[in-house]
């Protein structure tokens, strides 16, 4: 995708509120969560410009923390790893040089040297264990999937930093599962679109043949269910209030259903980590009954 001035201007407007909070130096955790949400949004839309700018913003945030001596080594590494991930989206040599300059600047101002071999203690955990930990840490409350969504989002950012391709794929797929169930239960067409985008992003990163087939099936199923939802919406009953009410599903119902599905998936991960890519969601179940 070509970077254009109008597009960059639009992205700058999207970041304005978060950038102002960042500049003030307050609520950096809020800023980090905000940037991470935008990263997932950008990836689900296959928006390379927004993805690049979000990765750079996250990198800048962690560099700021490192310069403030807040977990200096870890934040320095996170900043450089996020900057480096930008390179996968850039084809212009001049733009690549700018990103590499950011890494050198980070090294200069922190007096640290970036090493791709930097690891954290939990790196030895399997993908299944890491994602199970996400569910436990989220402390999910009934009818609320926000902590779980944030947990999977954090896991995705961690996967970039740690170069954990398996975690990268699985965290995107798990987020896709959340949005798929939100679309199924809440009849939310935007959620279907986001789920399909996240599955495609996971597919682009997946190197396992079985995993790729699973993701292809998820995408087809999501598009199929979305199509059915669109057709149902186009069939009026003659009563506008009835049509509207038919599409209203309490958010708590959609959230509860999503939590139930994700909980089942995570239990299967722990029961058989090696077969995680073959976990059955409602999409898989339907295919076996047709």
TrEMBL record:
Give the Polar residues compositional bias ranges. 276-290
Which superkingdom is the protein from? Eukaryota
* Segments for region (Disordered): 269-290
Q: Which PANTHER family match?
A: FUNGAL LIPASE-LIKE DOMAIN-CONTAINING PROTEIN, KINESIN LIGHT CHAIN
Q: Protein name, please?
A: Uncharacterized protein
Q: Which organism is it from?
A: Branchiostoma floridae (Florida lancelet)
């Amino acid at each position: 995708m070509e970077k254009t001035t109008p597009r960059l201007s639009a992205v700058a407007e999207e970041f304005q509120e978060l950038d102002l909070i960042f500049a003030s130096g307050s609520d950096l955790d809020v800023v980090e969560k905000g940037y991470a949400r935008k990263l997932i949004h950008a990836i689900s839309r296959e928006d390379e410009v927004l993805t690049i700018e979000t990765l750079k913003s996250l990198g800048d945030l962690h560099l700021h923390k490192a310069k403030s001596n807040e977990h200096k080594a870890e934040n320095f590494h996170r900043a450089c790893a996020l900057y480096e991930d930008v390179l996968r989206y850039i084809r212009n040599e001049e733009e690549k040089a700018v990103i590499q300059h950011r890494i050198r600047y980070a090294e200069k101002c922190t007096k640290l040297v970036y090493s791709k071999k930097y690891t954290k203690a939990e790196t030895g955990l399997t993908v299944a264990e890491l994602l199970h930990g996400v569910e436990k840490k989220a402390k999910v409350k009934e009818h609320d999937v926000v902590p779980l969504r944030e947990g999977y989002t954090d896991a995705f950012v961690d996967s970039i930093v740690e170069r954990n391709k398996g975690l990268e794929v699985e965290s995107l797929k798990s987020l896709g599962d959340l949005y798929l169930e939100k679309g199924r239960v809440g009849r939310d067409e935007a959620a279907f679109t986001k789920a399909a985008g996240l599955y495609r992003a996971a597919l682009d990163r997946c190197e396992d043949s079985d995993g790729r087939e699973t993701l292809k099936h998820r995408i087809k199923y999501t598009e199929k269910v979305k199509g059915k939802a669109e057709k149902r919406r186009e069939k009026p009953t003659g009563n506008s209030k009835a049509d509207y009410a038919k599409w209203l599903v309490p958010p708590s119902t959609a959230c509860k259903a999503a939590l139930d599905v994700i909980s089942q998936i995570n239990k299967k991960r722990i029961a058989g980590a090696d077969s995680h890519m073959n976990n059955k969601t409602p999409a898989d179940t339907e295919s076996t009954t047709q």
